[in-house]
């Protein structure tokens, strides 16, 4: 029987883990001896960085032809339990029932999910764009506002969280509301941030551009406060302010997928397994952790991979290669990604592009917007189902950042 590499997840890290593993197996001429299996609910890649946008077409491209082209098998299901001693996974099949899958190497690439603290009403009333289905629900809600009686609550959107997702969602929201309610509609978009300024994590050089973009979009900002309660028609802040709204959007923080907790070993404060330089889980033989489930050093300066597709693309390539290399007898490849950039979409104002961990501003407005659209609409999408073309970009050194 062939040895098995099982990859949990078909997001950016999971997809590229599988493609990279298939490449390494082919180069070692071990195709009949090692197989690659991807376990995920559907054979799709959700283009998660774009889910704040109004247009959701082609946000979950089908991977079946791509997997077939490189010899990767897909199992529709969810990994529920990981038995690290027996090297066995219990998979809840989408068609019903459970299946036990033994592995020789396992790659955890199940990503992350939005952090949802114990805020009254959050689960019942808040929207988000964290996953494809929740982005669809938000889109349907916004488009349905026009059918509701006009009121302050109907015409107000509150975005909770002033990080990059919150900034992108808030500056895009006026565009979406004009499309939903009419070009001349009166509405409010309010961004709530616990910090003293939205986007503060990107440093002092970027902050004025974020402030300018928010003002350009007409977004109101409340800083130094948090959401303490949400109901069907309002949001209450820690300052005591109550804002009438029927659309509260939650974007505040991320946590590693819960499966990471089943991997033995040390975790960081957001639930990621602390991996070694080859993205192995040090306390679990045969297991690799990648994407948003791993805390991995990007360089020798103390910088750590962020929960972003930029890092997931490279983390996936390295983890998949190394999982296959251990079985095929090939050389392992240490993870390193010293170049770091950010490109933040800021609605009609444009975008902001920075380079380096100190976030030096390089492009703004229309120039940065063109780059952002190239990244989001071309670079991060899966390649065509051409085996040779895939293998040309699936090696662990390949990086797509500008």
Structural features, described:
By secondary structure, the protein is of the alpha/beta class. It has two domains: 3-114 and 254-340 and 385-393, 3-Layer(bba) Sandwich (FAD/NAD(P)-binding domain), CATH 3.50.50.60; 122-250, FAD/NAD(P)-binding domain, CATH 3.50.50. 28% of the residues lie in helices and 25% in strands. The chain contains nine helices and 22 strands. It has helices at 12-27, 64-70, 122-125, 132-144, 164-181, 207-217, 309-328, 365-379, 387-393, and strands at residues 3-8, 34-40, 72-83, 88-93, 98-102, 105-108, 112-114, 126-127, 156-160, 188-193, 220-223, 227-231, 234-237, 242-244, 247-250, 254-256, 273-274, 287-289, 294-295, 341-345, 351-355, 360-364. The strands form six sheets. Strands 5-4-3-2-1-6-18 form a seven-stranded mixed sheet. A five-stranded parallel sheet has the order 8-15-9-10-11. Strands 12-13-14 form a three-stranded antiparallel sheet. Strand 20 (341-345) and strand 21 form a beta hairpin. Helix 1 (12-27) runs parallel beside helix 7 (309-328) and helix 5 (164-181) packs parallel to helix 6. The chain is globular and about 65 Å long. The two termini are 43 Å apart. The model has no long low-confidence stretch (mean pLDDT 97).
Summarize the structure in short:
It comes from Novosphingobium anseongense. This protein is an alpha/beta fold.
């Amino acid at each position: 029987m062939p040895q098995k590499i099982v990859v949990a997840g078909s997001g950016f890290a999971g997809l590229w883990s599988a493609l990279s593993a298939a490449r390494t197996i082919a180069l070692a001429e071990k195709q009949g001896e090692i197989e690659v299996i991807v376990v995920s609910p559907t054979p799709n890649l959700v283009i998660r960085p774009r889910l704040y946008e109004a247009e959701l077409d082609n946000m979950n491209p089908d991977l079946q032809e791509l997997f077939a082209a490189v010899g990767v098998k897909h199992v529709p299901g969810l990994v529920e339990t990981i038995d690290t001693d027996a090297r066995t996974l219990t998979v809840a099949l989408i068609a019903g029932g459970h299946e036990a899958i033994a592995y020789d190497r396992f790659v955890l690439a199940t990503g992350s999910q939005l952090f949802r603290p114990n805020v009254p009403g959050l689960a019942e009333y808040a929207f988000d764009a964290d996953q494809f289905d929740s982005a669809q629900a938000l889109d349907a809600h916004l488009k349905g506002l026009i059918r509701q009686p006009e009121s302050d609550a109907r015409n107000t959107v509150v975005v909770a969280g002033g990080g990059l997702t919150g900034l992108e969602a808030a500056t895009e929201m006026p565009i979406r509301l004009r499309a939903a309610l009419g070009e001349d509609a009166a509405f409010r978009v309010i961004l709530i941030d616990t910090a003293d300024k939205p986007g503060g994590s990107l440093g002092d050089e970027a902050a004025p551009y974020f402030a300018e973009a928010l003002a350009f979009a007409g977004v109101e900002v409340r800083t130094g406060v948090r959401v303490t309660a949400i109901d069907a028609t309002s949001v209450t802040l820690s300052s005591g302010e109550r804002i009438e709204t029927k659309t509260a959007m939650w974007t505040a923080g991320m946590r590693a997928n819960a499966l990471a907790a089943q991997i033995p070993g040390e975790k960081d404060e957001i639930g990621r397994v602390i991996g070694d330089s080859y993205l192995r889980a040090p306390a679990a033989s045969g297991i690799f952790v990648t994407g948003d489930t791993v805390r991995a050093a990007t360089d020798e300066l103390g910088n750590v991979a962020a929960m972003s597709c930029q890092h997931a693309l490279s983390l996936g390539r390295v983890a998949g290669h190394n999982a296959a290399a251990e079985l095929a007898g090939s050389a392992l490849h240490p993870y390193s990604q010293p170049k770091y950039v950010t490109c933040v979409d800021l609605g009609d104002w444009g975008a902001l592009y920075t380079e380096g961990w100190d976030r030096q501003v390089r492009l703004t407005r229309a120039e940065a917007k063109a780059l952002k659209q190239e990244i989001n609409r071309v670079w991060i999408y899966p390649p065509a189902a051409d085996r040779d073309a895939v293998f040309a970009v699936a090696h662990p050194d390949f990086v797509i950042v500008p």
